[in-house]
Specification:
With 268 residues, the chain is of the alpha/beta class. It contains 11 helices and 7 strands. The chain has helices at residues 18-29, 45-53, 68-82, 97-101, 106-109, 115-118, 121-149, 171-191, 212-215, 218-227, 236-247, and strands spanning 9-13, 33-38, 58-62, 87-90, 153-158, 196-201, 258-259. It has a 7-stranded parallel β-sheet with strand order 3-2-1-4-5-6-7, sandwiched between helices. Helix 1 packs parallel to helix 2, helix 3 (68-82) packs parallel to helix 7 (121-149) and helix 7 (121-149) packs parallel to helix 8 (171-191). The radius of gyration is 18 Å and the shape is globular. It starts with 8 loop residues before the first strand and ends in a 9-residue tail after the last strand. It binds NADP nicotinamide-adenine-dinucleotide phosphate.
């Protein structure tokens, strides 16, 4: 039986690690060729092997998604290599750097630490450049290429539960993800006439390198589990399943939405 993405080509930013890598493998299982765009291409080697073991093609492109030319080049490379660009997953992202690196420890004891008084503007700008402006530029580069190719497509932006959950100490991350959610809704309306659906996924806490410093800290780990009704971190493959739905024809009437695979974090 043909896979849900048979004959399609997907471009995945942040495809060398975590959620992006899981999407690449899941999409390949369903018949897609994949282009992985990431800062450090050599880190994509395992994902490339996994895709090729499934009989699909994988291409890796060095790409800093916070620069427009790199996004344009990645979209062009996908079209050149595969002759198509059907699905985009904008998964490249960074956390609130100070939070994860432990340069400040304020979130360990209570959740009232202030971004406004403690953290510098450079951190704000860095997170915005990658998590929000970078996603916008990936979307626009790929949308332009999809329109040129004329086959429509599906764009999936990786937001976060933090798009809707005000986390003290992480204003930069929360605002960047809230921006991704609104960007998704606007682009869904702008691109509907081109047959391009645009949706977002807002994961809860997922076990990836990005959250290793949280799951590895007993106090932070307990904090996450206490707020997650399923009492566990999610796995990247559980996000890839949702991305597959949004990428496929099963979601043919879904655009401008955000889906939260978060173990029950939200009760709305
Ligand atoms: P991850 O394992 O750290 O993967 C992120 C990937 O993006 C890494 O390969 C990273 O490269 C790459 N990247 C960072 N900046 C980039 C840039 N400017 N250009 C190109 N690639 C870049 O983290 P993840 O957990 O899979 O995160 C994927 C997305 O999900 C992010 O947008 C994140 O905010 C979001 N998210 C994650 C969680 C979670 O709990 N894990 C929850 C909600 C949302 P380097 O490693 O070389 O920096």
């Amino acid at each position: 039986m043909a896979g849900a993405l048979e004959g399609k080509a997907a471009l995945i930013t942040g495809g060398a690690s975590g959620i992006g890598a899981a999407c690449a493998v899941r999409f390949a299982q369903e018949g897609a060729d994949v282009l992985l765009a990431d800062l450090l291409p050599h880190r994509a080697a395992d994902t490339v092997s996994a895709v090729e073991a499934l009989g699909k093609r994988a291409m890796v492109v060095e790409c800093d998604t916070s620069t427009e030319a790199a996004n344009d080049a990645a979209a062009q490379a996908c079209a050149d290599e595969f002759g198509r660009l059907d699905v985009v997953v904008a998964a490249a992202g960074i956390s609130n750097a100070e939070y994860v690196s432990g340069e400040t420890t304020d979130l360990g004891d209570d959740r009232t630490a202030s971004f406004i008084t403690n953290q510098n503007v450079e951190h704000w700008e860095k997170v915005m450049a990658v998590n929000l402006t970078g996603v916008m530029m990936t979307d626009r580069s790929c949308a332009r290429k999809m329109i040129e190719l004329g086959n429509g497509g599906s764009i999936i932006n990786i937001a976060s539960i933090m798009a809707k959950f005000p986390q003290p100490g992480a204003a930069n991350y929360c605002v960047s993800k809230a921006g991704v959610w609104m960007l998704t809704k606007v682009l869904a309306q702008e691109l509907v006439q081109d047959g391009i659906r645009v949706n977002a996924i807002g994961p809860g806490f997922i076990e990836t390198p990005m959250t290793a410093a949280i799951s590895g800290n007993e106090e932070l780990n307990q904090w996450v589990l206490s707020l997650t009704p399923m009492r566990r971190f999610g796995q990247p493959e559980e996000i890839a399943k949702v991305a597959l739905f949004l990428a496929s024809e099963e979601a043919s009437y879904v655009t401008g939405e955000i889906i939260h695979p978060d173990g029950g974090w939200f009760t709305e």
